[in-house]
């Protein structure tokens, strides 16, 4: 069955088609949920909620643009919804923002370790970092998605980068001292 036919069948509440759609996209969408969740269990909840929203709103998908992109937006918004009503964001003066570049030499740290330390960032920093760096949203888009101002988005990104840079430097120093 083609993807378009699968989508059309989901629009008429065909549970078999919904199951197929779930099988087709759940692993990709779960990876997104992991990026925006505090832990594995919360990611599972977010995936479940995202699919409930997808099946409820699939009628709104008009075959314009990427279906996978549409699914991704719903999944990200579902995960972010948990944070919107919480006070996880600090309002920070834009003048205090300092850009931090993170230098990572090839093969110096594993991608798994990098993802692990990103996951350990405080919510407000992890969300902005993921949206900006990993998913390519602008600060204006992030501000709208998280109900914060642009300056807060920029400062949270800068702070996330500072934390990650320090964590990587500490890791490298510890690794270097073990070699001596």
Automatic annotation (TrEMBL):
Domain RNA polymerase sigma factor 70 region 4 type: 112-162
Gene Ontology terms: biological process: DNA-templated transcription initiation
Annotated ranges, domain RNA polymerase sigma-70 region: 21-87
CDD domains recorded: Sigma70_r4
UniProt entry tagged with the keyword Transcription regulation: yes
UniProt keyword terms in alphabetical order: Sigma factor, Transcription, Transcription regulation
Pfam families attached to this UniProt entry: Sigma70_r2, Sigma70_r4_2
Family: Belongs to the sigma-70 factor family. ECF subfamily.
Protein name: RNA polymerase sigma-70 factor, ECF subfamily
């Amino acid at each position: 069955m083609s993807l378009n036919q699968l989508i059309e069948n989901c629009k008429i509440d065909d549970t078999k088609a919904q199951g197929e759609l779930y099988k087709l996209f759940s692993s990709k969408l779960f990876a997104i949920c992991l990026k925006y969740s505090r832990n594995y269990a919360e990611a599972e909840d977010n995936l479940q909620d995202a699919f409930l929203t997808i099946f409820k709103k699939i009628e709104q998908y008009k075959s314009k643009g990427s279906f996978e992109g549409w699914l991704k937006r719903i999944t990200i918004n579902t995960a972010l919804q948990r944070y919107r009503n919480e006070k996880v964001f600090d309002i920070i003066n834009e003048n205090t923002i300092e850009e931090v570049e993170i230098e990572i030499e090839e093969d110096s740290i594993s991608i798994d370790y990098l993802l692990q330390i990103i996951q350990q960032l405080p919510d407000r920093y992890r969300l902005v970092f993921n949206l900006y760096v990993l998913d390519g949203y602008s600060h204006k888009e992030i501000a709208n998605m998280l109900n914060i101002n642009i300056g807060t988005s920029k400062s949270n990104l800068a702070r996330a980068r500072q934390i990650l840079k320090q964590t990587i430097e500490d890791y490298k120093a510890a690794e270097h001292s073990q070699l001596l």
